[in-house]
Amino acid sequence: AIQTTFLMVKPDGVKRQLVGEIVDRFERKGFELKGAKLIQITEELAKKHYAEHAERPFFGELVEFITSGPVFAMVWEGENVISVARLMMGATNPAESAPGTIRGDFSTTLSHNVIHGSDSLASAEREIGLFFNENELV
Ligand code: CMP
């Protein structure tokens, strides 16, 4: 089915100038960019975005990292884009992310792992709503 998903280059990826490389991979795959912006996330937005991890011991670290510099937030559309984008991102744990995936090619740490992608239809809808207004999407 045609889906939309929320993807975000994290502060480490922006600092390392990987935005173009990452956009390029999803474009070449055949997905369609529906919206994008470079933004500095507020602490309030970070806490909402990561609400499901609120009780985790690393929650503070997560919020601190994602607000440590600008992120590149995107909405992408395409056939099964939610799960396919996650395949292209690779596993969260860099010890398990395969070469050829974004994390497999560009990250060595669990927390600084270059990219975020929604993991389900419900989280895609929620995260797009948190980061984008209707008039920012084509
Ligand atoms: P992501 O899946 O985008 O969202 C949750 C993030 O939590 C995940 O990426 C990791 O970067 C991060 N994370 C998961 N486990 C840990 C951990 N043990 N310590 C620090 N960060 C973690």
UniProtKB/TrEMBL annotation:
Sites where the protein binds ATP:
K10, F58, R86, T92, R103, N113
User: Where does it live in the cell?
Assistant: Cytoplasm
Q: Matching SUPFAM superfamilies, A to Z?
A: Nucleoside diphosphate kinase, NDK
Q: Where are the transmembrane segments?
A: none
Q: Which reaction does it catalyse?
A: a 2'-deoxyribonucleoside 5'-diphosphate + ATP = a 2'-deoxyribonucleoside 5'-triphosphate + ADP; a ribonucleoside 5'-diphosphate + ATP = a ribonucleoside 5'-triphosphate + ADP
User: According to its UniProt record, which residues of this chain constitute the active site?
Assistant: H116
Which CDD domains is this protein grouped with?
NDPk_I
Cross-referenced Gene3D superfamilies = Nucleoside diphosphate kinase-like domain
Please identify the protein, giving its name as recorded.
Nucleoside diphosphate kinase
